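go over this chain:
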Amino acid sequence: MRLEIRIRNIKCDDALRAYIRRRIGFALGRLSLSIRRVRISVNAGEVMRGDLGSECRITVRLIRAGSVVLVERAPDAYAAIDRTIERLGRGLSRHVDLRRRSDSDSRVGSRAQRNGEDR
């Protein structure tokens, strides 16, 4: 899994990057074999109808199932990052588990057909 972090209009310090890496590791660690690339963009400025705040956009490129894009806006960069990564972890876990179940069901079905069994 390749991780790209882009931070704009925020005083970019190593603590924020380390925070993002740690949160991504916790949320997506067990799914890393299903993920090709994760791109995180954090942008501060006017993001909420004229209010100042931060936006976190995460794009995940999966190995076998396309891409997923999530965007969250919050008054604080850390809050936007937390919300986005939390949603991403839940959604990808569900997606990958369903895909694995579907793949194993199709293997069981094809094995039964090869053995001449009816399902």
